Amino acid sequence: MNMEKWAKTREKGKQHFVLVNGVLGWGVPTAILWSTLMEFLEPSENIWVRPIIALIIFPIAGIAFGYFTWNKSEKTFEKESTKNI
What we know:
The protein is mainly alpha-helical. The protein has three helices and no strands. Helix 2 crosses helix 3 (49-83). It is elongated, with a radius of gyration of 17 Å. The relative contact order is 0.19.
């Protein structure tokens, strides 16, 4: 882990990290990718239902992903910080 980069990231706070990395960085792109891929694999009559549902579900999952990533990174950061003392 890049300690200096994470130190700057954590200064912005957990909520910012979760929103940017979890919701916008993972949830929205995954929703778009999934709904597009599913439209090619299993076309539906109403083309807008799947993307709308995906744009609700995946960003919510992105919140969980963001919190998980934050907590894992914090544990690694704390472990590395105490090791360097």
